[in-house]
Amino acid sequence: MLKALYQALxxxxxxxxxxxxxxxxSIGNGITYIVIFSELIRLAAPTTxxxxxxxxxxxxxxxxxxxxxxxxxxxxxFKILIVGECLGMLGLLAPLSAVMTGxxxxxxxxxxxxxxxIGMTFPAISKxxxxxxxxxxxxxxTTLETIIFACYVIFGVCLGxxxxxxxxxxxxxxxxxxxxxxxxxxxxxxxxxxxxxxIKVSPSQAQINWRTLSGVQRRGILLLPLLALAAAPAMALLxxxxxxxxxxxxxxxxxxxxxxxxxxxxxxGPLILNPEKxxxxxxxNVLMVSCLFAFITCYGLxxxxxxxxxxxxxxxxxxxxxxxxxxxxxYTILKKFDEVHISAAMAKSxxxxxxxxxxxxxxxxxxxxxxxxxxxxxxxxxxxxxxxVMLSLGERWLKQKSVNFRSEQQ
Length: 410
Fold this sequence. Notes:
Layout: H1 2-11, H2 13-42, H3 47-56, H4 61-74, H5 77-90, H6 93-101, H7 104-132, H8 138-163, H9 169-192, H10 203-206, H11 215-237, H12 248-268, H13 278-282, H14 285-301, H15 308-336, H16 342-371, H17 373-409
Helix pairs in contact: 1-2, 2-7, 2-8, 2-9, 3-7, 3-11, 3-16, 4-7, 4-16, 5-7, 5-9, 6-7, 7-16, 8-12, 8-15, 11-14, 11-15, 11-16, 11-17, 12-15, 14-15, 14-17, 16-17
């Protein structure tokens, strides 16, 4: 995959500039993420607040994705990326106010701006990739899209962990603002080097009707929500999964290290896939179920880890497996929908994923408050996994029934 990614970036300057713009922006976003979660942990925020913080870092994307989807129908998607960066810069006022007041609710509100802009950019990025890349290069687009969102924490968390405690929180937020300015410049340069023309369509043409979609297209849209069903409860509870052998500042450092290990796994996941086998692997329910089982198993072992290194390894492996599923889900949508419908399909999948994330994360957070983090993790992620297995078996049964019916007709 690394070779294919290098070739695509070398052949397409706009893709290289686009990737750099998101990496730079991710540095700032990751720093803000560290500021928010480290302050929530320092203020001894309850588990419900940690889960709610995770929800607020994703759910406002529902509105953002709808705006992004509609805008991509008739305008250049690069423009909405630029608007998103501008809104992200303005959104820094929320964490600034939260730091000055020390208010837990304000820290939670600070999550919404980033989620909103991510929701806006998700359908726009998909349309850019679908238009600018060939079908053979779609696995590269999938990997790059995964890396872009993994870098949100990879670079930002790494820098944030190094600087946290050495410079003021205000200085960290200024660094964040600077990253937005640089990202805007890179986006403009990328747009100027993009040679292809985007198809403009009316809202009625771009709309997708669930009843007219093929089984493969429906499956593609549902893969991300299904991933969230099993993974979101665990990810929402991650800061609270620190083994009981840690306490005080050591527990805070361990929680942040777990977040960093999570992002390393997200980055490594798509890189282990062979781009030539994406089509075959994306159709495999067995692979998806196996990866999610490995994900839940690794998370379930974290609270009982006798060593911090073992706990970090479990989180790394968990997200390596989950992001294999994520990459294949993105690829399936890019592959099975044309340029006219790609933005609507990606936005629909994203919104379903966010709704599932909100429901299971809030439920897991409140359950953890009363029954404990470990019990909540097993209950919600385990139930999600069982439902996924049942749906996979149901899909297989329907396929077999359809084949038998056609055989009888012949």
